[in-house]
C-alpha cells in the first residue's frame, strides 16, 4: 500500500509544481521583453527546454546509490527536486509554445487548424515514444509478461532516446522560428498591419483603414470575466479525461484484462494513430457545425468508450476498437478546448500566456488531486496486483472517462447558453494619445467615440508564415 501512496505523492508533487509554475511563467512571459532580440516566447521556451534536459533522465533512472535495502523515503526525497525542475520546464515550454498561436493567426478557423496541426505533431511524438517502447520490449525482453524492477533499463533507455530526439527538434524550432517583436505587432493583436499589407488588387482599400482604439486586458482583468471560468472548467475536464485515461490505461490492460505487457505500447499507439488521423478533419468539421458541436461529438465518443468498458469486462482483442474510440474522442476534445482558449484570448495576446497558464493551473491541480485519491484508494498492499485491483482499474477507467465527461458536458452547456466573449469591464483603454500618429490622423472621430468599448476583429485572412508554422509544429516533438 505504501508504494502506491508514494507513487501518487510523487505525481501530486509534480502536478502541484506544474500548477504553481504555469500561471507564474504565463505572467512573466507576458511581462518580460525576452532576451535581447530573442522573442519573449522563444526565450521562455528555451529556459523550459534546458530545464527538461537537465532533469528528465534522472526521473526515469534508479536513484543514485540506492539498492533493494534503501528506505522508500530516501528515494522519495531524491526524486522530488528533479520532478519539480522538470515540471517547471514543462510548464515553460508548453505555455510559451501555446502563446505563439494567437500571435501567429487571428482568424478563428486558422486557430483551430494550427491547434490541430500542433496536436498532430504531438501525436507523432507520442507514437514515436510508443514505437520505440515496443521495440525495446522486444529487443530487451526478459521473458516475463509482468512489469517490475527488471524493466528499469528499458524505461531508462527509452527516456534517453526521447530526450535526444526532443533536443534535436527543439534546436530546429529555435533556429527556424521567427517571433515578431511586440512593437511590430501593431495594436490589433499582432495581425492588423500585416493583414492590410497582404490585401491585393480590388481588395486593397484606397485610403488607409481607420483603426479603433482597443482595450488591453491585463491579467487581473481576466479574473472578472465569466467566460474565463467557463473555458477553465471545460479545459480542466478535458485534461482530466485525457491525462487520467492515458495514465491508467496500462494498468487496466495488464491487471484488469490480463494482457501481455507489450500491449501497453500497442494500445496507446492505436489511440494516438486514430487521434492523429482525426486531427486532419478537425477544421472542416468545425467549419461545418461549429466548435461546440464538434466538442460534443468527441465527448460522445468518450462516453461510448466508457459504456463499452463498463459492460465488456473481458474485451481481449476488442480493446483495439475501444482504444480507437478513445483516441479520436480525446484528440477532438483536446484540440477544440485549446481552440476555445485561443478564441477567448482573441487579440489580447499581451496577456495570452497568463490565460494559458491559468488554464493549465486548473488542469494540474485537478489531475494531481485525482491521482492521489486514486492511489490512496488502491486495495492492494503489495506491488503485485491482488484480485481486488482487477475491478479497481476497471472502474477507474469508467469513472475517469464517463464520469468526468458529465462535468465537461455541463461546462459545454454553459458555453452553449452564454457564448465565449469578453465583457468590457476592468480594462485599460488605449486611447488616441497612445495610438500612433498616423492612426490618430486617419480616424479621430472613431477613436474618441469608441475609447471605452472593447473591440475584437470578427475575422481575418491573416495566416501564419509557412516556415514559422512548420517549426512551431516541430517544437512539439520534445
Automatic annotation (TrEMBL):
MF-aspect GO terms: symporter activity
Gene Ontology BP terms: carbohydrate transport; pigment metabolic process involved in pigmentation; regulation of melanin biosynthetic process
Signal peptide: 1-19
Location of the region described as Disordered in the Swiss-Prot/TrEMBL record: 181-209
Keyword terms of this UniProt record: Membrane, Signal, Transmembrane, Transmembrane helix
Entry's family note: Belongs to the major facilitator superfamily.
Record protein name field: Major facilitator superfamily domain-containing protein 12
